[in-house]
Known about the structure:
There is one protein chain. The protein is of the alpha+beta class. The chain folds into 5 domains: 6-93, GIY-YIG endonuclease (3-Layer(aba) Sandwich), CATH 3.40.1440.10; 104-203, no CATH class; 255-369, Nucleotidyltransferase, domain 5; 385-561, 2-Layer Sandwich (Nucleotidyltransferase, domain 5); 567-618, 5' to 3' exonuclease, C-terminal subdomain (DNA polymerase, domain 1). The protein is 43% helix and 18% strand. The chain is built from 20 helices and 20 strands. The protein has helices at residues 6-11, 38-45, 54-61, 74-88, 136-150, 170-173, 187-201, 206-221, 225-243, 295-309, 326-337, 349-379, 381-390, 442-465, 488-500, 535-563, 576-585, 589-593, 597-601, 608-618; strands at 18-23, 29-35, 65-70, 95-96, 104-107, 116-119, 128-130, 255-263, 266-275, 278-288, 316-318, 342-344, 398-407, 410-420, 423-424, 430-433, 481-484, 507-512, 518-523, 526-529. Strands 13, 14, 15, 16, 17, 18, 19 and 20 form an 8-stranded mixed sheet that branches. The chain has a 6-stranded mixed sheet with strand order 4-10-9-8-11-12. Helix 5 runs antiparallel to helix 7. 29% of the residues are buried.
Amino acid sequence: MSEFDIQEELKKLPDQPGVYIMRDKTDQIIYIGKAVSLTKRVHQYFQASHDEGIKKRQMVENIDHFEYVVTDSELEALVLECNLIKEHRPKYNTMLRDDKTYPFIKVTVNEAYPRVLFSRQMKKDGARYFGPFTSASAVKDTIELVQKLYKIRTCNRKFPDSIGKGRPCLNYHMKQCDGICIGAISEEEYRGNVDAAIRFLNGDFKPVVDQLTEKMMAASAKMEFERAAEFRDLLESVKMCVQKQKITSSDAMNEDIIGISQSGYDAVAQVFFVRNGRLIGREHFFIKAQQGDTMADLLGAFIQQFYAGTPYVPRDIYIQEALEDRELIEDYLAKRRKGPVHLYSPSRGQKKKLVDLAIKNAFLVISQDREKIKREEGRTIGAMKEIANLLHLEHVNRLEAYDISNTSGYQSVGSMVVFEKGKPLRSDYRKFRLKTVEGPNDYASMYEVLTRRFRHGLEEMEEIKDGKSKEMSSFVKFPDVIMMDGGRGQVNIALRVLSELHLDIPVCGMVKDDHHRTRGLYFNNVEIPIDRSSEGFKLITRLQDEAHRFAIEYHKSLRGKNQVHSFLDDIKGIGPTRRKALMKAFQSSDDMRNATVEELMEIPSMNEQSARAVFAYLHGLNSDDK
């Protein structure tokens, strides 16, 4: 790829709607935005007179090149922006940190004999959905209750085709099913039960409570105390279900109430879910704010990202502040809902009180979690700062650690683990199966692993630079510090590799004592003592343990595969099915060797070609030999 001239590329931008993608010098996406006019919007970032705030100034300083995608409308640009932000999670975009899915109750009214099921998705499949709910366990309890109350089937049989083709299950004998499978209930009668179940799920509890109370009293009067106890337990379950839906509204609408509270770079969004006029649950979400973000920025980013990932969008959404792009976001949400959506910012009345209540709850969450967040930052970012200070480095964000695992030199493997901002970045972990080293030689093994890792990264950079590839793996991202599991010897191996590849990366050894516990760091030919109670020391220990664990797991998996390897795996045309059939037919390899081709052909799944291949292999012949 030729040198990217930003000023020249700015001249080429079209005066059309679209999405722009900002990248840094490593080709990492750092910001994604939408625009009504790409040329006007992107030009603004590079105009000295235009102030985008601290966040945007920092982002602009890191822009090496950009690209863009033209769309037919601003709405299409918004949809594309949401999808790209969710996929790439750029550094300078305000990000929703939670990615949750919510359960639904699904009634398969499109079936002849409907079922009541648990579902994580709402599909256009003709079924009836209730929810979403915030508690999976509460949904499962409600489904179980509905199945018992209305004798809804739990089997997966296809009715009416399966009627009369099998014996009834245990539920029939326990009187929890009316026996569809034996034709004991008609489709019309069963539909009546399902309709009653739907009314119950819609919140019509009174008929059930009255009916169960009457049955309990009648059974008790007849001294059928076990039967009365069954009705009592069902009644208690129904009352529990009623109590979960305390707040009601006369307009019986489906709506979400959203309130956000912010503290520095941390923000929390509290969402109240109101379905059919009842508050069915609430949930909070952590947001990673950026410097200079306004409340409208946070609300807009949260709404777009949250509703891009949730299967249900209500008609009405109440928020604390009006949005500049309100109509555009409403159009986007309407496309997802396939119906109108309205964003309201009430200034008085009951809705304003609910929004204020959501804000208050968000504030409580962020206040209560502030100490937890501080502790977490101490364990992660704070620990990285401690390590940087110990090594007299200006900044440490990415650590890579390596380990070798083998059994007396057998099946030698290497592991690479990555910690970014003090947390494991498992997507960047890598495994290496040693190719050039035989026997238990850890130094030679480490030399091979490090050479392959950094050479791969350099080659990939060249391909990207030359325009041969746009894909970028974790190998392209080089660490701020390489952490070696050991002292001077391991450090020198790493320094040798870096020297040969003309790379300048700090290398630090994690030195262990006689009890195999980390005692200090070996850096620049000096062993640096480290406080064992510090967060930096604890992070180093976690990094070292993780590299060791990852290498051992990979070694075990290879060793296990090798141990279950059969000579039949080496024969062309013999897969798992034929291998299993052969092993079942013959008690030993000698018995198999004594079999003729005709006898081998009689085994299930074997044909003449595969039989000849097995016979030839066992007798050291070419498979075409007679």
